[in-house]
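Section 3.1 - Work completed
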Amino acid sequence: MAAPAFAENGKPDATLTVAPMELELAPGKVVKTTAYNGSVPGPLLRFAEGKTVTIEVQNQTKEPEIAHWHGLWVPSNVDGATEEGTPMIPPGASARYTFTARPAGTRWYHTHTMALRNLNKATYAGQFGFFYIDPQNEPGDYDAEVFLALHGWDAYMSTGGDEEGGLEVAYKYFSINNRALGHGEPVRVKQNQRVMFRILNASATQYHRIALTGHSLLVTALDGFRVPSPRKVDAIEMGPAERVDAIVTMDNPGVWVFGEVDNRTRVEGLGIVVEYADRSGAPHWSLPGPWRWDYTAFGTAQAGSAAVDRKIPLLFKQKFAGSRWVDHWTVNGKEFPKGKPIVVENGKRYRLIFDNESGEAHPVHLHRHGFELKSVAGAPTSGIFKDVVVVPPWKTVEADLIANNPGRTLFHCHQQMHMDYGFMALIDYA
């Protein structure tokens, strides 16, 4: 039986208050936004794997709100999506969510409202925070831990230089956590420390490629799931909502920039200074050497032989809405909510075929479940579990889902504008 949607008695394990705030990214750069507990990111929620927790969310805004526990395997009625049956929280009201903290790893929480053309709300705002679930068996292979959230601010509509094309979202400013590059406290490290960076792309729409000058990053987990083949990389590429855990051995003393590879985005704030003890001066930045981000590098070469009960094609297409307008999106030919739910049976294995017949990449997310990558753009793999995967333009990604969490389950592109304009579908259990 599903856990109750709202716990009525007792003190909550954590309280999140949604309210307007002003965030100073740098001197003279102040943005008006909405956040949890007056901070960006919101407070780190950290619990032991398997613990039953109650979280109270208080809505001190003038709009209905909702909180989604991204990557957690929770019942539909507390997942934080109205499409699954979780109620909205009216202005001035509060709600309590009770569920078991699982699976272990780097998860996060964020609002799950629609934005449409209001680029000050939903995931454009500061309503996000880390939710870390401590595993029962922690490898303990690092000395220090740092949480970094990437975000863009003051979003606006742009033609992207194509006056005949559709509108897309651009940003004036960027930050890692609550400050722009050079205007916050540095990450202070010591020589030979092994520092675990838990990184979240909390952008509503933008992909990020980040690197730490003078260092390589050992990727140990994707979306909170430990990978079977940890690998060192010179840079990390992340779609909206993806998380990467990477350990850096601090073996190059100095003052360095950990930031966005794209020069404009980094200059506008997406970076943070990493400073060794007893070192000072201006932080140094240089581009990483030639590199290629590839999910399959972290898995095993073979796709595996587990039989699937059924293949489920999920075809993504773009509907041009006219020049200087917002394009719409379909899954299997239907804009949400016009399509019928995809029905699965508890305990069965399904091969999800994400077929992107468009010129844009899509970070697709499945609520309340994880899935195992089986092929990426034709390259076989196995052992890599995720809850968000970027499907490249004109390519196909295949992933196996074990249907083991009954209830309505939302599937959508985590690019806010795509989700708002049709790119969603429901999976339901028979």
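Second construct:
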Amino acid sequence: MDTPFLPLQDIFPIRTTVTDNSIRIAGHSLHKLAKDFKTPLYVYDAATVRENIRSIHSALADFYPGEASVSYAAKAYFSAKFCELISVEPVELDVVSFAEAQIALNHGFRADRIHIHGNNKSYEELTLAIENDFHAVVVDNFDEIEMVGEVAESLRKTARVWLRITPDMRVETHPHTETSARTSKFGFHVVNGDAENAIRRVEMQPNLNLTGLHFHLGSLLFDADVYVAAIEEIYKLVLRTGIHLKELSPGGGWGIRYTPETPKNPLENWIRPVANTIVGICRKHKLPLPKLSLESGRFISGRAGVALYTIGTVKEGLDGEIIAAVDGGMADNPRHALYAAAYSAAIVDNPNGEIAAEPVRIVGKFCESGDQLIAAAALPRPQFGQLLAIPASGAYQLSMASNYNLAPRPAALWLEENEPPTLLQHRENPEINSWWLT
């Protein structure tokens, strides 16, 4: 019998239910999945991924009268099987490495749906992109203008490029996820004239075709005003240089909810002002509407993923704090250690139990005091052997996982209703696929 699961219902994947007081996703018992595949384990709800893509397209259709596209940022989470599954959806792909690009080409993405980003691309990466006619090489710096031109000339190709513009503005997020300030390592800064100079330099390269401009302000943003201000800066640049802007990518970074305390952040609060700003400027200056390309990694995969752990030792601190250690931690999810990221959690077989008087600190098993997943979780008092589920774990966790303490990276599953789980990535086997054996 299904029962309500209200406190975290809109943070867990959309097909989360509580049946017989145990959490299920897409009809799959998390308890059984943990038994069959061991923990730590990551699961992805296919319907949530698809719904998030659909909702972005729907908002673009509602608010932007020009051509538009949605790109998935591979850095959020990627594997060969995940690539294959997402390639059939109406998304383009942002990659930032040779491996991501090669997997994309080998597992379902046409080259004309791929953009390659990065602030220090290698000749190998640029050659792969230009040889295969990627939709765009997102050029980050003056050295790269020369490198792309050199590779394109050697291949007798014309490379389609976007320039990454840094609008030199602060945004409200963690300093490590801010990408647009004056101190940013990314892109061509506006305030010192680099952005304008970069446009002139690209125009002088016979093997480069400037098709678009791109900026990225940061991650986990909840304020669309910063996007509006950045777009206004971009169009001042367009008007000064007189370029024909065919494509505009205002990046991504729109925030998702990790805890019930986080305010809801509907897509229309982002896409409506972005679209209205572009349309208003283009109408005022009689410019053609560019293709609007939104990037979204976290929004597409973040809520879809859930991390499962087995609770081990439970102790009380000197101040009465409850400390529960799990069998994973910073090796599979370094976000709290890196950004003090906040999360919520549920006991899989007691999600609606009475909350303990004291919050529970969820820590990992690794030899670092900073190995912590949740500083203060509202949970029933945890017990040894229980399963813990942490929602909103689908982005920037497995993709940043490590072998710290020689921990094997966990398995990940794709869940469809009425179908067996699909393995997105194997649990690493230290006896077979581990670098430390060679």
